[in-house]
Amino acid sequence: xxxxVEKAALDNWYCLGCVADMQPGDSATxxxxxxxVMTKSGSAAVTVRRKDGSGTVASKIRYGYLWATLGAPxxxxxxxxxxxxxxxxxxxxxxxxxxxxxLRIVENFxxxxxxxFVHTDILGSEPHxxxxxxxxxxxxxxxxxxATNCKFLQPxxxxxxxxxxxxxxIYRVATPFVTVLYKTCPNSDERWDVIxxxxxxxxxxxxxxxxxxxxxxxxxxQQDLIAFQLDIFLQDRIIxxxxxxxxxxxxxxxxxxxxxxxxSIAYRRWLKEKGLIYGTTLTAA
Length: 285
Hints:
Layout: H1 7-10, E1 14-18, E2 27-30, E3 34-40, E4 46-50, E5 56-62, E6 65-69, E7 89-92, E8 96-98, H2 102-110, H3 115-118, E9 135-139, E10 144-154, E11 165-175, E12 178-184, E13 192-203, E14 206-215, H4 222-240, H5 262-274
Antiparallel strand pairs: 1-6, 2-3, 3-4, 4-5, 5-6, 7-14, 8-14, 9-10, 10-11, 11-12, 12-13, 13-14
C-alpha cells in the first residue's frame, strides 16, 4: 500500500496497547508503517516519540491503555463511563494481529449473522440463524453509529452463564476504529456487560486488535475470561483474513447487503461521509 493517509484517518486517537504490559523502549506501528517508541515513567506517564527522531506525538492514557494520534483530533479519546464504575472488572485481553483492514474488523464486530456459523454453540447455533429486525442510526449529536434492540439466542453468551439465553445487544461505533458492545449482564438485570474493541491500524491491510471487557463478574477466574474472549476473536480472524477484497468496499454496489446488514450499511455510509479512504477500496479524488 502506498497511499497517503488523509486527514479523516489522521485525526483520530488510536490505541497502542495496555500500559501495564509495556516496557521502556517498546515500539508500536501506526498508519502506513509510522514507527513509534514509548518511554514509560511510572504507571501514569508515557511519552511517545517517532522512531525516526522527528519528535513526539500527542498521547494519553485512558482505561489502562495508551492512545496516540498523528493528527489533530477535535475530540478526546472515546468516553466509556462504565470504565469508571468501581465494581467492574477490567479484563484486558492482550492483542491479536490480523491481516485485514481495521474497518473490516469493526464491521465484523457488528455482524450478528455469522454467530451460528463461525461461533457455533457459543454465540449462536443452527437452526437459530435468523437475525431479528433491529434499529440502526447515525447519531449526529455525538457523531457515532448505534445499533439498538439487537437480540440473539446464544448457547454460551458469557463465562458466567449456564445454558442458552436470549441476549440483548447494543452496538456503538464511536470512531472508525473503536467500537463498544453493551450486552445482557447475567449477574445484573439492570446493567450491561461492556466489551470494547480498540483497533490499531499499522498498514491498510494489517492491524492489531485490543479487546477490553468491563464486566460485572467477581467469580470467574481472570484467565478463563481472557481465554473465552480470545477464542471468539481468533475464530473471527480466520474469516477476516480470507475476506476479499481485503480492504473495505464503500461503493454501494460492491457487495450485496441483506436485511441483517443494517449496521454495516450505516457504518459504511458514515465512513464515506467522513471522507475516510484509509483501509477502503476508495481512491482519492
